[in-house]
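FAQ: What does the model actually see?

It sees only this:
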Amino acid sequence: MGRLVPGIVLAAGRSLRMGRAKALLPIGARGETFVSRIVRTLRAGGVADVVVVVGGEESPVARALLREELPHRVAVNPSPDQGQLSSVKAGLRAIDHPAVGGMLVTLVDVPLVSAGTVRALLAAHASTRAPVVRPVRDGRHGHPVVFDRSVFDELRRTAVSAKEVVKAHLRESIDVPIAEDGPFRDIDTPADYEEVFGQPPPDVADAAGAGR
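And it is asked to produce this:
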């Protein structure tokens, strides 16, 4: 059975609560964006194949990543309005082949995860082959989540959400204690952004420029 664990970044949403493309919002003063930080973090954490799921062939997210020449692939979700599950399935279609033993899934609005957390999750999956591996702190679960190959068919079949698959395997799943805040810090709204970065989020055009 395969041992490779590609990473899938879900970045096809419309960012309605943020009011601008979350994936292209800047982090710090170095020109990094949410999505570019995540791609770099996954690579640094040991993920050799990173797939970013976007909402269309002409996605600004895909164009921004190309400008940065980051090592990644793009998968297009043709129906992003059908919700997050449709992006999970689009990512699964892009990564699945016999050498793959699982997939690591993360959200573009959880950009502050460290490479150390990624390594810890991959190591827990490699040593246990648990169906689901999740970061946990004080009883709260976060992202990324590693899904073993054994649940790929369940992810394909479910019409509800990936959480349904997680719930079906709670007894066999592995929780990895994580001390850092990143896996549990969703940045979904302008208020979330201002709380984390100390200033309001810039306009979409400004954010896209920051990613160049």
